[in-house]
Amino acid sequence: MKMSSGKVLYAIVCGAGAASDLEAFVLLAQGAGWHVRVIATPMGAKFLDMDRLAALTGGPVRTDFREPHETSNGLPPADAVVVAPATFNTINKWALGITDTVAVGMLCEHLGMGVPTLAVPQVKAELAAHLAFARSLDALRSMGAHVLFDPTAPPDARMPSWREVLTELDGILDGRTGGRPKTEAQ
Known about the structure:
The protein is α/β, with parallel strands linked by helices.
């Protein structure tokens, strides 16, 4: 597949409902000139058509750490990272630096490298109200992550559309979100 630019986007996906439609996000991002690579948590992988995504992106969906004999992770360097949908579990582990999955490990690493990173949580209201979740979002923002999440949205609208996610990423890269990474509810 011919890309109109060399921009590389890591799409990190967790085990929540919106993951089953990740193909739509990949196609939108590719249409905007991104070369997309997909990394999934073990639960996120259960929502995906791995073969279809590999065919679309030109590379396998990464779900595990590289083996000791592998000299490279096989991924081109990322220009940006989007984790969507991001689950309660992944947000909390990421904020604490618990890298027990390749997805969370990459989130920690790329945030530490200063790669623009957008988190788009998809969590139940009960989990969004949990103190640990709010603290984790604050911690991630303080480390430079951008968060697109409206905890007051009705459950069927809590996850923004893939187009809104891509628009938010464009805003981050163009500097339109300004200053402190924002949350929709702010």
